[in-house]
Amino acid sequence: MHLPLTTALPLIVSLLTLQVQARDVPANIQTLYNNIKRSGSCTKVLKSGFYAKDDPPNTFSYCGDHIGEGVVYLQGTGGALADMDIDCDGLQNSPASDGRCGSSTDTQSHTSFEDTVKSYNKGVDGLDAYIHPYVVFGNVGSNPGFVNYDPRANGVHELGLIAVVCGNGKMFYGIWGDENGDDGPRAVIGEASISMATLCFGNVVNGNNGHDETDVLYLAFTGADAVPGKDGAKWNAKNAVEFEESLKGLGATCSTGDDCADDLVCKSGKCAKP
User: CB–CB of 110/126 below 8 Å?
Assistant: First the structure.
């Protein structure tokens, strides 16, 4: 991810070598989660003034307390983290659709980085909210009073890896796939594709019903090594589990094969396929 992962916290290595099928939060990631909540709020604020909902308070921030370990995350005050609203933007009429996005009232057929996805020439013209577990990160708009933040200013790359600790003992990871716009009255945070939300919380979520509790931790990784690129992910996957599985081992450092998930082996300090 960012820099010398060999000198980063062990939790970062464990995060990236997580066995997807297990889906449980590793003990050291849970410790990070607990410590961030216990801190109440972050001390190195990258940008503040955001809402988790359209109503106050606007006390949520992009945080850089762990940016030295290559992580930017979201946090409010009083121990609040972020919620998970549902994004159905991207390719429409998905073959993976089960109709749950039909209740969304603000669906758009585009996502922020679709041109990059299309340029990979993998048979898809952009992100599919039902197939690609992506996170909506960053805020861009021109309405009066709208608070902007571009994660790229702090080293997060478009389509880069974002891990999501769901708040219920589960963790999944996907990519930075979209940005929060000013189509609503306020600059909000805490949103992910319906596929990510389904991985976290099951089919109870839909286009108009997300996860309201502010107990979700979004960990966006910095640096070019956090970007799967053209060949580092299965962009033409048929479902979310298949796409997530393709990210396994992305950027993971290792000392021995025991540090790597599933069938990966340790090659030159990186987890890789045999």
Answer: yes
